[in-house]
Amino acid sequence: MMRRRLITNLTPLLDMVLLVLFAYQIQSSFVLARTATTARSEAEIRRDTEDSARRVARENEALRGEREKLLRELEELREKNRSLEEHVRQIARVLHGMFGRVPEDQFFRAMAGASREDARKIREALDRWQSEPAEAVLRRLARIESYNRHVTSWMVHLRDEHSAEVRLNDGPPVRLTLSSNEAELRSRIGKAFAEFEEPKDLVIVFFSWGRLLKTQKDLVEDVLEILTQDALRIRYPNKRFYLTREGYRAGE
User: Contact at 8 Å (CB) between 158 and 206?
Assistant: First the structure.
């Protein structure tokens, strides 16, 4: 009787133990499942991280290659600019030797922005005409567009004791009636210049004459001196004006 009661009392306890074991087994299954999932996630994260690292490394390598290419191109451009600058300096020295009164640095400033093609054409022209008289070279330069893009030439030529011609670069001449009155003559020549388009930063006024009395030539030259040194600089404060004399042209 005692034995039957003991067995009867142990049965609920065994049931509880079985329930605990079953719950533990279920919990272990969940833990194993979560562990496996976590392991897979970690592997995927590690794989993604490694892929990202390799991709970043490739991109960095490409960027380094592009950077090195840009640095090489930049150095090539700097070398070309140094070469162009020296080329322009040589042109400025040659032009200064021809124009005389115009400082070399003014030519350099005027042509500092010249393209390589403009500089090449101007230098070739100077080389081609170097054996000719300076006056002829000066007149020919006024016909070259690559030169006129950087320097403006105002040509003043006395044809006789009553008239002169004024032209922009190698453009059509404008006939001008002279006057023995200095103020009137200055007004007429200044008005003729004002009719031209706005000049470049460097303006060279060429003065030449035909068969004229010396007094008439001197009067016009004095007027041009006043204009280039005073009146024109006031009208165009940021530009530089220089008077250069082509001199006497034979046969006129």
Answer: no
Chain segment 46-57, per-residue pLDDT in tens: 776 777 777 877
Please tell me the distance from the alpha carbon of residue 99 to that of residue 240, in angstroms, as a whole number.
14
The 3-class secondary structure across 37-98, one letter per residue, is: HHHHHHHHHHHHHHHHHHHHHHHHHHHHHHHHHHHHHHHHHHHHHHHHHHHHHHHHHHHHHH
Q: What are residue 162's phi and psi, to 5 degrees? A: -120, -15
Centroid of chain to Cα 208: 37
What does pTM read for this prediction? 0.67
How far apart are alpha carbons 8 and 11 in whole angstroms? 6
What does the DSSP 8-state code read for residue 180? S
Which one, of 172, 98, 174, lies nearest residue 141 by Cα? 98
Decide if 207 contacts 156 (C-beta within 8 A).
yes
Q: In whole angstroms, give the CA distance from residue 214 to residue 229.
A: 22
CB of 153 closer than 8 Å to CB of 142: yes
